[in-house]
Every structure is written in C-alpha cells, then in structure tokens.
Amino acid sequence: MKVTEFKSALERMDMQQMNEKLDSLRHELFSLRLSVSTAHVKNHAQFKQLRQNIARVLTRMQQNNQKTVIVNKGEHGRA
C-alpha cells in the first residue's frame, strides 16, 4: 500500500479501527522479526515500512486525541 493510500485510509478510521490496525502492524513486525531469526527474509525494507506505518498510526491517534481535548475544553468554557 502506498503512503498516500495508507494516510487516507487512516483519516477514515475511528479510534477502535486504528487500535486494531496498530495491533495488526505490531504483530506483523513481530512475525517478521521471528522469521529473520529462523529463516531468510527477502525484503529487509519491510522492517522500515512497518515501523513507519506504526508511527503514522500513533501520530494520527495522537492528533485525534488533541482535537477531542480542544473541543472538550471549548465546551466547558461556554458554561
């Protein structure tokens, strides 16, 4: 999946879906690490790509959290 496609897919996800995607990516990275120790891996660039995708998901989750905090602070200030 291309980076732009991955980012646009993240924008459409809610927090639960992002958590599931994060778990999936972390499991995939773990499996890849195991396969390196037991067998030959053809494409070592997969490590970098998985780590970058994990970082993208975490960044997007953090951005969503910041937006909800700002919205919640604005609602409390109107009372």
Structure description:
It is a single chain. The chain has 79 residues and is mostly helical. The chain has helices spanning 3-12, 15-38, 45-77. Helix 1 packs parallel to helix 3 and helix 2 packs antiparallel against helix 3 (45-77). It is elongated and about 55 Å long.
Record the SSE blueprint:
Layout: H1 3-12, H2 15-38, H3 45-77
Helix pairs in contact: 1-3, 2-3
Tell me the strand percentage band.
under 5%
User: What's the N-to-C terminus distance?
Assistant: 46 Å
Query: What spatial form do the alpha-carbon principal axes imply?
Result: elongated
String of helices and strands: HHH
The percentage helix is over 70%
CATH-derived architecture: Orthogonal Bundle
Largest sheet: none
Evaluate the radius of gyration. 17 Å
Number of strands: 0
- Low-confidence residue ranges: none
Q: How is the CATH topology named?
A: Helix Hairpins
- Domain count, please report it: 1
Please write the CATH class name.
Mainly Alpha
Rounded mean pLDDT score: 89
- What is the number of helical segments per DSSP (H or I, 4+ residues)? 3
Structural class: mainly alpha
Keywords:
single chain; 79 residues; mainly alpha; Helix Hairpins
Quick structural summary:
The protein is mostly helical and about 80 residues long. The chain has helices at about 5-10, 15-40, 45-75.
